[in-house]
């Protein structure tokens, strides 16, 4: 009798168990969906007016991002980079006039339309350019002391949008398909700007 009452009050199609801001396990009646995961390639670029930007591993060794690509890993529980992005910036001070110029360090992050629908960045140092635009900016060397070599490790935290979590099996399948074909680009910039006279 207790089992019958439980079944009567159980939603017809689905109930969802959610942990934090990510997917947990999605149950449809008595069936658990196959846990799927995918990786989204990260297009990582650089733009420099002055100095040199290189991407390095945890030991500080320069890596070729075409052979050692960054990826965004997505599954039912998380959205995260496969590893944190570490940048090495080298500056030649001999050709830099600090009396009239300064260097601005900006990181631009852009999602395509599909990724924007489901995912957002939740990091204190990252600013969204426009709500639901999928475009973000970050100052990646906030306290630059004009040293010859400086390292920076980005803290980019991604999460699923609570408004876009799937509520049916069909929506779940579509979410997976959309994310599997989505894209993200990250561009680190060192821009030379004139200071006020």
Task: List its traits.
43% strand; disordered N terminus; 197 residues; three-stranded antiparallel beta sheet; mainly beta
Write the layout of secondary structure elements.
Layout: H1 2-9, E1 15-19, E2 22-28, E3 31-32, E4 37-48, E5 52-56, E6 71-75, E7 79-81, E8 86-90, E9 101-111, H2 113-118, E10 119-121, E11 126-128, E12 135-139, E13 149-153, E14 158-160, H3 169-180, E15 184-194
Parallel strand pairs: 4-15
Antiparallel strand pairs: 1-2, 2-3, 4-6, 5-8, 6-7, 8-13, 9-12, 9-15, 10-14, 11-12
Detailed description of the structure:
Helices cover 13% and strands 43% of the residues. The protein has helices at 2-9, 113-118, 169-180; strands at residues 15-19, 22-28, 31-32, 37-48, 52-56, 71-75, 79-81, 86-90, 101-111, 119-121, 126-128, 135-139, 149-153, 158-160, 184-194. By secondary structure, the protein is mostly beta strands. The strands form four sheets. Strands 7-6-4-15-9-12-11 form a seven-stranded mixed β-sheet. Strands 1-2-3 form a three-stranded antiparallel β-sheet, with no helix packed on it. The protein contains three helices and 15 strands.
Number of E-state strands = 15
Widest beta sheet: strand line-up: 7-6-4-15-9-12-11
Question: Could you give the order of the helices and strands?
Answer: HEEEEEEEEEHEEEEEHE
> Which oligomeric form is depicted?
single chain
**Count of helical regions:** 3
Quote the beta fraction: 35-45%
Mean pLDDT: 81
